Amino acid sequence: MSQNFAIEQHPVRITVLKKHFHGDFVAAYAANPDLWTECKHFAIGQQFEVSGDAPWAMPEGFCGWAWADIQKLVYGMARGGQEMFVTVDRIDCCTDGYRPVIFLLEKVKRET
User: Is residue 7 part of a domain?
Assistant: First the structure.
């Protein structure tokens, strides 16, 4: 007996909310601390959209390291999970404890 399940497909919007730079950590622990700056890959307010039919695909221009950190949440939202997540500001955010970036993830509402 087989069951047919409808797979939800929702686009997910990713918005850059905030960028941090932990200069005190850089000064204490990084090699060549004078070369470190805040993340220059993203701009605050920058938005990306992930397709509902291919939520595993990293948006063009997105940082691969940051994508590795958030892709599971994006995939879950695209397939019917929560409406919104705000990733927590932690040292492991974006795999970069010196300069983490905080993202807002939102399931895009469909017009009916």
Answer: no
Per-residue pLDDT of the chain (112 residues; tens, 9 = 90+): 566 666 788 899 999 999 999 999 999 999 999 999 999 999 999 999 999 899 999 999 999 999 999 998 888 888 887 665 655 433 335 778 899 999 888 888 766 5
Total number of domains in the chain:
1
Among 48, 41, 64, CA closest to 13: 48
Q: What is the residue whose two structure tokens read 């929702």?
A: 10
Q: Quote the pTM value.
A: 0.82
| Lookup: tokens for 28 | 């204490």
Tell me which residue has tokens 């007996």: 1
Closest CA to 79 of 55, 104, 48, 105: 55
